[in-house]
Design brief:
This protein is an alpha+beta fold. Helix content is about 25%, strand content about 30%. It has 6 helices and 13 strands. The strands form 3 sheets. Strands 1, 2, 3, 4, 7, 10, 11, 12 and 13 form a 9-stranded mixed sheet that branches. Strands 5-6 form a two-stranded antiparallel ribbon.
């Protein structure tokens, strides 16, 4: 990789670590690139699709002229490894907030769970979680929510293309989900719990695919302090 390569455009596949924001990951990568290569002060770099801090996995970063194709990549279908815990909820729909509303799940069967998952296939209505990066009158929803302000999220259409590789080890349910852009897996977890009548929240989320790009070709090494890029 050379200075010219980065300016002409490169696609770098990051495996985002847990508890990093997407912004932090891109900033760390940008710092490393600028420290190792002779790049202009206003070097263009950006990511194609935000991952929540509590999620890990594939984060696509584009540099130089390739930043123009970010919208195209964002429009591609996504795939996630998903783990939910049923019988309890959290305000954030994931592990950021403490558990609330404990429910008895002794009567919940595997057949019931699989039947419920099938109900979410195809186009569905989904309301994003209040702890999300969606802007409301210029403010991020999660900033408003964390400040204790009331946040009203609007319903939107999204598509669940498939749910496969289902593993049930109550209270945990694990599966792989393929979906359209704009899908909130946290909301999917919450809605599955509501359909079951016992609540649920997201305990583990890992993005494994965006369009033709896969996690197998991604690395978190780029974010390590001692990592050096091959400049050939």
């Amino acid at each position: 990789m050379t200075d010219e390569d980065l300016l002409s455009g490169q696609i770098i596949l990051l495996d985002k670590p847990l508890d990093w924001t997407s912004f932090q990951a891109v900033n760390k990568l940008k710092y490393k690139l600028k420290s190792e290569f002779n790049l202009p002060k206003k070097f263009k770099i950006g990511h194609a699709g935000t991952l929540d801090p509590r999620a890990t996995g594939l984060l696509i970063v584009c540099t130089g002229k390739f930043t123009k194709i970010i919208p195209e990549i964002q429009d591609a279908p996504k795939e996630y490894f998903t783990e939910i815990k049923i019988g309890v909820q959290t305000e954030s729909y994931d592990t950021e907030k403490p558990e609330i509303f404990q429910q008895d799940i002794s009567e919940i069967t595997e057949a019931q769970i699989k039947g419920t998952l099938e109900k979410f296939l195809g186009e569905i209505d989904q309301k994003p979680p209040i702890f999300s990066a969606i802007k409301i009158e210029g403010n991020r929803a999660y900033d408003l929510a964390r400040a204790g302000k009331e946040v009203e999220m609007k319903w939107r259409k999204t598509t669940i293309n498939y749910i496969k590789d289902i593993e049930i080890e109550l209270p945990f349910v694990r599966f792989t989900v393929g979906c359209s852009k704009g899908t909130y897996i946290r909301s999917l977890a919450h809605d599955i719990g509501q359909e079951l009548g016992v609540g649920a929240y997201l305990t583990n989320l890992r993005r494994t695919k965006i369009g033709g790009y896969t996690i197998e070709n991604a690395s978190s090494d780029y974010l390590q302090n001692d990592f050096k890029f091959n400049k050939e």
